[in-house]
Each structure stands twice: as structure tokens, then as C-alpha cells.
UniProtKB/TrEMBL annotation:
It holds the Pfam family HHH_5. InterPro entries: DNA_repair_Rad51/TF_NusA_a-hlx. One of its GO terms (cellular component) is condensed nuclear chromosome. This is DNA repair protein RAD51 homolog 1 (inferred by orthology to a human protein). One of its GO terms (biological process) is mitotic recombination. It comes from Nippostrongylus brasiliensis (Rat hookworm). One of its GO terms (molecular function) is nucleotide binding.
Amino acid sequence: MAAQLSRERTRDQEIAQTVFQEVSNEQQEEQCSFILIEKLEQAGISSGDIKRLKEAGFNTVERIAHAMKSEIASVKGISEQKADKLLYEAMKLVPMGFTTAYEVHERRSELIQIRTGS
């Protein structure tokens, strides 16, 4: 009986630890203010294309999502079709929607202000 209770406690602790790690990982992803371009590799973009984009100054997914298609297509080795795919995949990762003033106010209220005394 005691051995069974011990196993159940151990199992419960393992489950709690797993849940804690998942929540921590999600919070870290939410707190990050940018997404590195390497994340597009998971969406089917080749590493060679990512290297070309980095050499051209596209280091984040946000930079690609906010760029014009012609700007992306001007990178050597990136065709119009690849530019379309890059924009599509980048816009799936970057929230491009409308933000209300209330949401902006809520985020700004979380900022820490340091008083300098002057």
C-alpha cells in the first residue's frame, strides 16, 4: 500500500513537472519580441534560402512579414513564387492583425519605469 502511494506521488510529481515545463516554454515564447528567421525552416523553407535572406539583411520573421514581395524577390536566388511562400509562412507566424488601444494600454502598463530623480 505504501509503495503504491509512493509510486502515485512520484507519477503526480512527474506530471506536474512536465506541465510546469510546458507552461514555462510557452511563456518564454510569448515574451520573446522577435522570431529568428531559422524558424521558417520548420515551415519548409530551405536552409540555403534562409542563408541568402540573412546575407541580404532579413534576420527575423517579422522583417520578412513586413517587407514587400518585390523586396524579397530582389534577393539573389529568391523567385517570385518563393517570395510568395516566404510572405505566406511569415505572416502565419507573425500576428499582423489589428490591436486595440486598450490592448496597447494594457501592455504599456506592464512596463517598468525607472525614476532618475532629475
